[in-house]
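so my prof wants the structure for this chain in the tokens format not the other one, which i didnt know existed until like an hour ago. anyway here's the sequence
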Amino acid sequence: MEDDLDEFVAFALRHPEFVNGGTAIRCPCTLVKCQNKKFLNVEIVKVHLYRNGFVSDYYVWIYHGEKQVHQRCSSSVRVSVSETDQMVSDNMNHTTYHRMVCDLAGPEFNPDEEPNAEARNFYDMIRAGDKPVYEGNSKHTQLSAAVRMLEIKCRHKCSQAWFDDMSNFIQELLPQDNLMPLDFYSTKKLVRGLGLPAQVIHCCVNNCMIYWGDDSDLNSCKKCGHARYKQKVRDFGNRLYIRKLKVPYKKMHYFPITPRLQRLYASTATTNEMRWHLEHHMEDGNVTPQTPGMCHPSDAPAWKHFDGCFPDFSSEVRNVRLGLFADGFQPFGQSRQQYSLWPVVVTPYNLPPDLCMKEEFMFLTVLVPGPTNPKGKIDVILQPLIAELKSPWGVGVQTYDISKRQNFQMRAALMWTINDFPAYSMMFGWSTAGMLACPHYMEDSNAFRLIKSGKQSWFDNHRKFLPMNHPYRRNTKDFIKNRNVTKQFPGVRSGDEILQDLNNRGLRKVIDVDAEVVNATISKTCGWNKRSIFWDLPYWREHLLRHNLDVMHIEKKVFDNIFNTVFNIPGKTKDTYKSRDELNKYCRRPQFAQNLVTSKYPDVPFVLNKSQKKDVLEWVKKLRFPDGYASNLGRCVDANKLKMFGMKSHDCHVFMQRLLPIALREFLPNRIWEPITEISLFFKQLTSSSLTDEELRNLDEQIPVILCNL
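here's what i got, hopefully its the right format
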């Protein structure tokens, strides 16, 4: 047996990435504090294994360097060993037997297997809570009643005292032998068994750091020095108020993602859907295997490129692909109180399109506290999430798949983020303000500053995306005077190129102590303002697409600018006297110049007159849509000021794609109406449920021409 232990230790030491300090490895014995969680000296590990034996079902040494490719079959082969003394030797010989079985039966060899300990506890808790609240009640079980009570408390913002009083009142109404929880404490204790933990982490009031990990015991910020807790003693003049508990100045909430992903495989309602991304077929409409296209991210080149870079990950269809999105909002409605709350949401893209965008599968992982926008310091708040995403990537976590009745090592990878343009800067680390706002052209941008107003302008920056033989490139009349465009878009930079640029410039992560000073100095000469924390993910550089822009935000901005300019809304139109004054300094537009005699500016053909505005708004007020298609746009019409207000993103989405070309058809000249219609159709096709590769190429070729026409 000693020889077998020596062979196991030697195998583990041959894999330095699984060794800590040169002589410490994870102890796989049955002790609760070990079980592959704790690093110990190899001699102590041998003593533990001799006394206690290996932890159950540890046949493939995934925590000590054995390759992941064997894990798929290892979880489906069961070997029962009754004597502890035989456990080590059987584990040593099991690898050969295991490989032979896999070679003969193939990777789909799936004999029934008992759930792992965590899944078993979950199922036991569900069964225990599946009893009716009282005998004869068929509507609610003990667990469903507890969850419903907590949901009512949250929805109506009720206090804990209200919850306790309501629980006592319900007890008086029910039979004496009911199973309804007695109070808030017992309700939380029952629901806690679901295994979906939440962590409260203290933060620096200035978002400099979080008191987490190695910094969890600090009492003041290591960057700005601000105290962690509020003062215990406060002077109110004639009396002193002494706090009994330590109250932090600021705190964040973190909801681990791994248990919720494991629940997707523990439920028969979702486990089969988690394999949809590989098993679906493109046969929707004109998208067929003969005309390849996309109806799901798994059909996209970025997904397939990732599969090619990491075949060991893609070989297990149950490994999870995640998308992350974040945005700020005002939680107090129309209150005058300024407060910006930032939820960070993660969704699994293994699911079909109609499920991965549903509320139930959008997992809130981080709640970034206000009252101010975290801006570039959002990386500080994202530390627990990035640390958790790194953990299931390498080794994975043991998960029970109820559809196949087997345990497997579930791994997860973050595919990309989705944000609006300002939040893009927060995630990527490149400033999206100023003349270097383009994250692809970076320092090679052709933006310029207007002479009089001092504003940045990106006018005539789209011709570089046209084909080299396009006549617009040689047009010196309709764009900037006397300018021929010969520059061509060089293409999107790879992850290795971006990372090398960051390393060469010496940019720091926001969590580094000297980050603020170093990054501020570097950002004066370029658009970079930090090294994003997402580069800590070992696979992030290999992605073709790391950050996405939310099309709904962009569509709303485009619609607002077109509509407000056509309606000439004061303060929002782009056709101002300042822009008219500077227009002819850069372009040949003498018909729009100021009349030197009257000092007035002539009317322009792209602005509606008063009667035309009334006609459009009256038409909008009378519109009726099918239920659920759009909100009542009539409520957004201001007939007195001749404008529309309070339109949400979805309202702008519907108006832009369906109504704008119809509304302006009779009032604008064709040369103005046609480009507006083209960009409306562009968004309509871009947001369709499926696209062929040819349609995508056409959209890519059309959008520079449309923008030039506008």
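also thought this was worth mentioning. The chain is about 35% helix and 10% strand.
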